[in-house]
Amino acid sequence: DAKTTQPPSMDCAEGRAANLPCNHSTISGNEYVYWYRQIHSQGPQYIIHGLKNNETNEMASLIITEDRKSSTLILPHATLRDTAVYYCIVRPNTGTASKLTFGTGTRLQVTL
Amino acid sequence: SQTIHQWPATLVQPVGSPLSLECTVEGTSNPNLYWYRQAAGRGLQLLFYSVGIGQISSEVPQNLSASRPQDRQFILSSKKLLLSDSGFYLCAWRLQGTDTQYFGPGTRLTVL
To answer: Residue A101: pLDDT above 90?
Structure first.
């Protein structure tokens, strides 16, 4: 799986958009960008994934640059409950029983 | 919709005692199932995965074992716990042919 680089921590005011960047300059053509988050003492939660087009669901939006070397996860209106560690993962969507490898992620702190 | 359950939520066990953690998935059939361990402040380590009843693959040598007696049940066991077995144990499932894994709430194990 391609390596990803994320800032170790970010702050965001409640109600504002949280924009979490991820660099994946060695991504290959068949690799998807996945985002998970882990709230303290809970299991990781799937957020969104995409290949090259921007994606949006009820939780977040994923913006992938045209060269696919970086992406941004956007939480449009952050709440205190969005405080968590956010993981960006790049891997092929092969459907195989392969493991997920989480890096250190970005610790997002949402404040009042 | 699919749900994944783990129990117990927390467990404190003495060194040398046995272990049995259970994971069940509802709302899907023939999922791939995974056991991960997350040590404090560390990433996820895949321990076992299963593509079907009675089919277990081990990722790392250890004193733990896994079993899948039913399609949607995955059990993690040990005959004698070590101090190093302490951690946050996560079960995950994945629909075959897709690549998104969904995690359970986890079991926090402390071995004293």
So the answer is: no
Q: Which residues of A are less than 8 Å from B98 in CB distance?
A: 93, 95
How is B84-95 classified by DSSP, letter by letter? GG-EEEEEEEE-
Structure tokens at B8: 């117990």
- Mean pLDDT in residue range B3-24: 96
In the β-sheet with A31-38, what is the strand arrangement from edge to edge? A9-13, A106-111, A84-92, A31-38, A45-50
- A56 closest CA partner among A79, A81, A76, A85: A76
Contacts of A45 in chain B (CB under 8 A): 103
- Find the CB nearest B49 among A42, A94, A97: A97
Q: Are A77 and A90 in contact (CB under 8 A)?
A: no
> Which tokens sit at B102?
């969904």
**Average model confidence (pLDDT) across chain B:** 92
Mean pLDDT of B83-99: 90
In A1-112, the DSSP E strands lie at 9-13, 18-23, 31-38, 45-50, 55-56, 61-64, 70-75, 84-92, 106-111
Q: How many residues does chain B have?
A: 112
% of chain B surpassing 70 pLDDT: 100
d(CA B99, CA A94): 7
